[in-house]
């Protein structure tokens, strides 16, 4: 395909020719072999509007395509006469040079294309909003007079941590420190991560720079926005989230681009926000799976911000109750410096955490404490805590569709057609169906013992709530799950049964919390299962009153497990260090670079023949994927997964090799859909 089409003969223009007649355009063509800019001619009537960053329409391979002007130039290396820009859609420079550089870096890091990533970075145009924003900009800064005064200082939990005050002082003086803030989990004000982020943003703005602050979901974003408004004032802060709708999202985007807002808060959609004079990027809870972009090339927001901090020289602040192996790797490389409380302070501030049956006295009172799902200790703790406040009970499942095993031999019940896992549907008939292919399981017989009866080894939240309601008559029992999440609960006695991620905060903090079925979170077929389990548990600990205020957490499970031991010690840093060491020994990310390739058998055969792996690369598989896995544009064929694994030092070369294969297949117009992921979050 030619770089640009030859232009038709045109009459001489009476108007002066542009001084920079060439527009270098990023065309919206997500084909890997065309992942480069193309040159077009700027006509005299387009000269004023075709600014770098402007949206344009161009003719490409006989079709009109969208694009962005990357730069203007006096000359072109194209060997043919340049086709003119078909249209300048808007003179608004929405793709800044900094954003374009970040988009290119993210695309290269994840073996993707510029066109795929720029869709994540620049929201769709909303013409009416753009017109209104332009009028406000043209009216000048005097029209933006509201809230220009600084609000009164608010509580700043970050300075209560060693090196927290020094971090903020560095921001205030224009420096760019990079830190991992290990937030002590408790309901005390000292654990208010949102207030700490707001204080860091204020220090950055006081130093003359802007900030991008990210939280994983809308509830956390709302909390963060409120904290920032309290610390900086309404006019300095905007929230940029995709869920707010096209007009609101574009309005916030333009407020940042025009310099009206110095601080952008948001979720994944705000990672590329065009904040002027960027001085700080901050992200809360990088272990949350919402940070993994579900669209190609599947970038993780943590890595996007790390790339952005490296490119711009901005400060970075990652914070969480837990700690991922990825952030631990940044710490061990010296790229991040921990900000954490001393162990003695953590023991005093966090609630007391223990495991059921972990001492002789507990076992003497309840010999079944280590094997019972709800041992006697649970009822004792709930009964003691209810007079002083609510009690939270975390259950890994909601209770609608439950895992099944043979009642006689405990063999997992598998589909007789596809060997997928089965579940009992909610409802009166309790039909047993396959969770992969959906087929009902009629006249099931256990292939191991010949039994015909099944049971669920895991009781969901609904059944747990009913059992606790019978045990504590007269006590309100509330449920919170993904299907119906509570915003919060009052500070008086009640039992709240919640699934992971749906735990509502309690006024004044919970008096106690119970973690049921802890083995279930640990037994997920995923490399990150222990890390994710500890993250989920520490999120519960953070909702409970501190130890000095009588807060207590009881986990039901095997106290010898590494994750539960780290929970009892409230030691996410030690856990992450050991987890990273284990991954290094097993050659898993972040101690190795992994690329997974999903496709039909013929596609993977072609891929294997084309890829030129760097030295030390291991090829694993291919292995079959579950029938429910499908690819966009696929034809329904069974999918396989090929895994390529290389040492970190060869990581960039492996990603480049994967990108080259995509280019070759694109140029050949090879049949069969393929999905390439770099360092995927789920490593089963």
Automatic annotation (TrEMBL):
Keyword Hydrolase: yes
Disordered as annotated region, ranges: 614-635
Gene3D superfamilies: P-loop containing nucleotide triphosphate hydrolases (3.40.50.300), PriA, 3(prime) DNA-binding domain (3.40.1440.60)
InterPro entries tied to this protein: P-loop_NTPase (IPR027417), PriA (IPR005259), PriA_3primeBD (IPR041222), PriA_3primeBD_sf (IPR042115)
GO molecular function, one term: 3'-5' DNA helicase activity
Cofactor(s) it depends on: Zn(2+)
Name by which UniProt lists this protein: Probable replication restart protein PriA
UniProt organism field: Microlunatus flavus
Lineage of origin: Bacteria, Bacillati, Actinomycetota, Actinomycetes, Propionibacteriales
Encoding gene per record: priA
């Amino acid at each position: 395909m030619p770089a640009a089409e030859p232009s038709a003969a045109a009459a001489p223009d009476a108007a002066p020719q542009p001084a920079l007649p060439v527009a270098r355009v990023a065309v919206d063509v997500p084909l890997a072999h065309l992942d480069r800019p193309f040159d077009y001619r700027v006509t005299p009537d387009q000269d004023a509007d075709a600014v770098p960053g402007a949206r344009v329409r161009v003719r490409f391979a006989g079709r009109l395509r969208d694009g962005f002007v990357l730069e203007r130039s006096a000359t072109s290396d194209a060997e043919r006469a340049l086709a003119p820009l078909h249209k300048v859609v808007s003179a608004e420079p929405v793709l800044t040079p900094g954003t374009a550089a970040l988009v290119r870096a993210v695309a290269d890091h994840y073996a993707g294309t510029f066109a795929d990533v720029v869709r994540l970075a620049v929201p769709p145009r909303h013409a009416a909003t753009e017109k209104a924003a332009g009028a406000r900009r043209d009216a000048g800064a005097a029209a933006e007079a509201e809230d220009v005064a600084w609000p009164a200082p608010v509580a700043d939990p970050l300075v209560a941590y060693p090196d927290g005050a020094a971090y903020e002082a560095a921001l205030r003086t224009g420096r760019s420190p990079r830190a991992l803030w290990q937030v002590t989990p408790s309901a005390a004000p000292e654990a208010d991560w949102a207030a700490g982020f707001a204080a860091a943003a204020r220090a950055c703005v006081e130093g003359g720079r802007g900030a991008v602050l990210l939280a994983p979901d809308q509830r956390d974003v709302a909390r963060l926005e409120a904290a920032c408004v309290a610390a900086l004032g309404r006019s300095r802060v905007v929230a940029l989230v995709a869920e707010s709708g096209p007009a609101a999202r574009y309005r916030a985007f333009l407020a940042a681009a025009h310099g009206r807002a110095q601080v952008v808060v948001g979720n994944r959609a705000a990672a590329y926000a065009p904040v002027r004079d960027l001085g700080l990027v901050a992200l809360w809870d990088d272990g949350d799976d919402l940070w993994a972009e579900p669209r190609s090339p599947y970038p993780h927001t943590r890595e996007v911000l790390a790339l952005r901090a490296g490119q711009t020289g901005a400060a970075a602040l990652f914070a969480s109750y837990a700690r991922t192996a990825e952030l631990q790797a940044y710490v061990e490389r010296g790229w991040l410096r921990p900000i954490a409380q001393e162990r003695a302070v953590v023991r005093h501030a966090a609630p007391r955490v223990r495991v059921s049956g972990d001492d002789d006295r507990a076992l003497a009172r309840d010999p079944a404490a280590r094997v019972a799902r709800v041992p006697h200790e649970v009822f004792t703790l709930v009964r003691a805590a209810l007079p002083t406040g609510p009690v939270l009970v975390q259950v890994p499942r909601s209770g609608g569709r439950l895992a099944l095993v043979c009642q006689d031999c405990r063999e997992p019940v598998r589909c007789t057609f596809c060997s997928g896992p089965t579940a009992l549907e909610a409802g009166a008939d309790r039909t047993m169906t396959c969770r992969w292919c959906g087929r009902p399981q009629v006249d099931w017989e256990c292939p191991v013992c010949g039994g015909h009866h099944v049971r669920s080894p895991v009781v969901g939240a609904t059944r747990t709530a009913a059992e606790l309601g019978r045990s504590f008559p007269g006590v309100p029992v509330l449920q919170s799950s993904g299907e119906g999440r509570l915003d919060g609960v009052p500070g008086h006695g009640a039992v709240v049964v919640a699934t992971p991620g749906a735990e509502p905060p309690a006024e004044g903090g919970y008096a106690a919390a119970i973690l049921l079925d802890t083995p279930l979170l640990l037994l997920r077929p995923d490399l990150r299962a222990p890390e994710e389990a500890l993250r989920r548990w520490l999120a519960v600990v953070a909702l409970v009153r501190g130890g000095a205020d009588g807060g207590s957490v009881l986990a039901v499970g095997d106290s010898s497990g590494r994750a539960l031991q780290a929970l009892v010690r409230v030691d996410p840093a030690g856990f992450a260090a050991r987890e990273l060491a284990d991954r290094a020994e097993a050659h898993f990310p972040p101690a190795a670079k992994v690329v997974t390739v999903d496709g039909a058998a013929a596609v993977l055969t072609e891929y294997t023949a084309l890829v030129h792996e760097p030295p030390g690369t291991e090829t694993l598989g291919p292995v079959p994927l579950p029938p429910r896995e499908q690819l966009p544009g696929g034809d329904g064929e069974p999918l396989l997964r090929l895994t390529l694994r290389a040492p970190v030092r060869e990581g960039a070369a492996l990603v480049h090799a994967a990108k080259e294969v995509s280019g070759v297949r694109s140029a050949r117009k090879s049949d069969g859909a393929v999905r390439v992921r770099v360092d995927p979050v789920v490593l089963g």
